[in-house]
Amino acid sequence: QVQLVESGGGLVQAGGSLRLSCTASGNIFTINTMGMGWYRQAPGKQRELVASITSGGSTNYADSVKGRFTIFKTNAKNAVYLQMNSLKPDDTAVYYCGGTSVRGTNYWGQGTQVTVSS
What is the DSSP string of the chain? Predict the structure, then answer.
């Protein structure tokens, strides 16, 4: 079993930056072999993948955030981060950390609110 806890959301003006953190606890083997991702869900919209990182460190980004957001991780701290720069009002959403084990089990954090004012 794995637990994911996000932190770092908040209110920021357009053009500003935030860094989200996701800390994993539980089965260490599962954590070290999981693919991780940051997702977001705005009011009235479906949850979408923002950025992902494999256990080997390969990354992928949604077109809407390429060049502005960076996903990275520190295995020693069992943490995954999302550095968000040049934020736009359209980035306003609840951001979720998610992980998928090699067996296909999905894990989710509770979400953290990001609000970007214009």
Answer: -EEEEEE--EEEETT--EEEEEEEEE-HHHHHH-EEEEEEE-TTS--EEEEEE-TT--EEE-TTTTTTEEEEEEGGGTEEEEEE-S--GGG-EEEEEEEE-TT--EEE---EEEEEE-
Q: For 49-96, what is each residue's pLDDT tens digit?
A: 999 999 999 999 999 999 999 999 988 888 999 999 999 999 999 999
Closest CA to 101 of 6, 13, 36: 36
pLDDT at 87: 98
Max CA pair span of the chain: 43
